[in-house]
Amino acid sequence: MLTVSQDRFRLAEVFTIARGSRSHADVVTATLARDGVTGRGECVPYARYGESLDSVRDQILALDAGVGREQLQTLLPAGAARNAVDCALWDWDAKRAGKRVWDLAGLAAPAPLVTAFTLSLDTPDRMEAAARKHAARPLLKIKLGTPDDMPRLEAVRRGAPDTRIIIDANEGWSAEVYAELAPHLIGLGVAMVEQPLPAADDDMLGEIARPLPVCADESCHDRASLPALTGKYDMINIKLDKTGGLTEALALRDAARAAGFGVMVGCMVGSSLAMAPAVLVGQGADIVDLDGPLLLAEDREPPLMYNARGVHPSTPALWG
What are the φ and ψ backbone dihedral angles of 125, each rounded to 5 degrees? Predict the structure, then answer.
């Protein structure tokens, strides 16, 4: 039996990006029960890609409960619905076999990963205060993408003078803005910028110098995305809600490395159940951004462990 629930998790604080604010994480959970074994997967529908809680639920419920991972790749497109089912199938297979998912996938046992912590978009004063609060973290991710980005970034650097910083412009810039800001961002110690230009209008990235490395987020979904990114991007951001699950995420990681791209593994704002499969993809990545549960006021039980070593692999009671 394949069932679906819509679950809501309160955020610890209101989270804001250039596209809007939220106080809750709304997710879809797929649960597969067969032969006395239960597997679960979580996804976060994203309106940017034409998804909603209801559309994702309907996609999942239209599937036959006997679907397998290989068949699933052709039945649903890359996206949130396929992600939830694909991860539920991996979880079910692992529990049925009495093994861990990484053993089934032929991967080495995962280690903890140092993850970015995201500061949401706010006034410079509030972002400086937030940066100071989290200045001991090794990597901060800053949400930008507005006409007033530099005062915000300067404020964050004042609050966290020694922390490595990456920024996410959320498609909010133009090629001219990137070219103008890049030297200043490098001077402030920024290591990388995600998706500075709209995905539909990013060709200019292939025609201008990129002194600050650029990572494709909205422009990269699965392996079919890679050819169009060559010459425009230096890295790709792999998110399971874009790839349509762990199966394609692992394949995309390997293909991206073979094509010479750096690899970042990111997430939507979801619970530990959504992060657990991504921890496998994040092994060996250049940048890991799996901080979703750190932004929540409530989480799954048992949650993933986060400590000074980073985010740890899941226990079987959570996933995989």
Answer: -65, -45
> Which pair of structure tokens corresponds to residue 269?
């704002």
How far does CA 57 lie from the centroid of its chain? Answer: 21
Q: What is the pLDDT of residues 91-112, one digit of tens each?
A: 999 999 999 999 999 999 999 9
Q: Which helix (H) or strand (E) holds 22?
A: strand 20-34
Pull the structure tokens for residue 278.
Answer: 């991504």
Token digits for 18? 């250039």
The overall pTM is greater than 0.90 = yes
Q: Which residue has the higher pLDDT, 2 or 144?
A: 2
Active site residues: 143, 239
Is residue 54 within a helix (H) or strand (E), and if so which, with residue range?
A: helix 53-61
Burial class (CB in 10 A: 0-12, 13-18, 19+), 154: middle
Beta bridge mates, 11: 296
Q: Is 189 left (phi over 0), alpha (psi -120 to 50) or beta?
A: left
CB 128, CB 154: distance < 8 Å: no
